[in-house]
Queue: 3 jobs
Job 1
Amino acid sequence: MATDREAFGLGSLRSFTIAEGILLLVLGVLALVFPVIASAWVTVVVALAFLVGGIVGWVNGLNRSRRLSRWHCFWRLVVSTLFVVTGAWIIQQFSTGLVPAAAQVAALAFAIGIVFLVEGVVAAIVALSHREMAGWGWGLANGIVTLILGLLIVTMQAGGLLTVLGILVGISFLFSGVDLLVFSAAFHEPEG
């Protein structure tokens, strides 16, 4: 039997999980209603992640330089520099106006389409090469759906590319919100 303190802790966790679920549902709906704005935010977040990742990579590379070969250290610093330059360039494009910012959003969406194409082909090949295993059909279905999504994205016109990231984020947030409200909150119910 749970003590009052444990019950309070579980109740607090459940309340927090429900609040997070509601927040994700609201953000998901907003991303679907305003997909271009959501796409721009995703692009900025990716740019910031590149910047932070590059700076952390530089610090880590320099701290470990005595333990790494010069060649290894050099290439780690090159990659970190590319991260910083790419992140800074994307952010700079957003500060120079709407057209350069839209080009960045479209480029990121197109890159995701390419990733989906490759991922879909790989998933389908893996599934087909393991037909003796239970569930291989789900792997094949995943590969086909991912491949179709990739084809849809890479064949979109520029205006469509501006909405893709926002729609993907919106759908993901909606599903995550429903999961938190319906499934995850059940983990924090007090035992009776």
Note: Residues 98-128 form the longest helix (31 residues).
Job 2
Amino acid sequence: MGKIIAFTNQKGGVGKTTSAINIAASLGIIGKKTLLVDLDPQGSTTSGVGIAKKNLDYSMRDVFRAFVNNEGDERKKEIVKSCVKSTEFENLWVLPSVITLSDTEFQLYKADDSAYFLKSALEYIKEEYDYLIVDCPPSLGMLTVNALTACDGVIIPMQCEFYALEGLSQLMISISGIRKNFNADINVTGILLTMYTGRFILTAQVVAELKKHYGNKIFSTKISRGVKLSEAPSFGCPVYYHDKSSKGAKEYLEVAKELVERI
């Protein structure tokens, strides 16, 4: 049965989508069947693995609409399975997103038990994968609530800056609320430091503060800034397939291996 890992941070621009894509791809490279679930209406995860959104017959919008409209179990299952797209990358599949998913999110606020829709949808397919990596929007709306309700663990990518520390405290409070109301088993699998520059004094100060409060939660491998890592999305591929000798490719492979040990 596949483990569901949500990548979330209410602060945008922290490398959340980059990390979801590259850790999912790295899991595939080390032999784990992996499904990327794109819950962000911007669809950056979808395009980041080379899927053209304009050519999609089904997307996560259709999955959530099937639950909002309370369609039959077989129809829901059919839509979820039809939504899964293969990629050209080893052991990697994706449940894609489109911009109109944002319209569907508003409907979730009116539907009964809507926090559990993603959890129910993934039940149809999660036994086919080792890992299901969910990329959340940079907000705590109903799409993110769905991801946190469905997941076995949470990875929090964050930059080494003091505003990020503030945001982390708020996110931990939100996760506690999810644990209390929707998912008693949710845990923080790890905090992933991104855009890391070790020579900065500020970086060392932030890392020291993190270790004080979340020591065992911090991934030992940190993700450095890198040209190849920044270039890869424009080619529609994870960094390993853009340049497997790059620092970013090697670091994300190490994080994937550590993730397997953690969950």
Note: Residues 3-257 form a domain with the Rossmann fold fold (CATH 3.40.50.300).
Job 3
Amino acid sequence: MITVIVEGPGEQAVIPILARRSLAEPVRIKCVSASGKANIIRRVRGFEDTIRRLHALGEQRFIVLMDGDTTFEPYQSLAQEYLDMPRRAAIIASELGVRVVACWARIETESWLIAGLTPGSTHCTLRRLPSIPANTEHTPPDPKKWLKIQLSGDYTARIQQCLAESVDVELARQRNASFTTFCTHL
């Protein structure tokens, strides 16, 4: 089993579906919500303590998944976060003798969902979609807002799950390198 530490309930609902659909061989995925990115990256009681608790329960493989849209203390920039989080992951992995990988969804995990959509899609309460960006790691700049605008209803966990079940995961890999990177760690 792979335990993925995520920012919130949206990722908690979507990641197991995307992972299942992206892999040829089934892998059990468990997502643990940290209730915000700040709770993942902080130095005291951050992801390291979460991994220690889960390891005590028998977990052995971890992915720490964060959005790449903003950062919090102790980091002053995303560049600083991108450099330090893998170092921290390596330290806790060595301490416990487990596998820990730090991974980012560039801009947000919603960019992975957008990457797998096709023009004209109307499933999951989507309005008829306009063209889809060729590289969703950069466009749209606010993927969550873009999705909310494209929906005829509210953006809920149910809609996120519907989109995760409906998108073309191979197209998502082509349009979003961070999704491909995440899949290689599964």
Note: Strands lie at 2-6, 29-33, 61-67, 99-105.
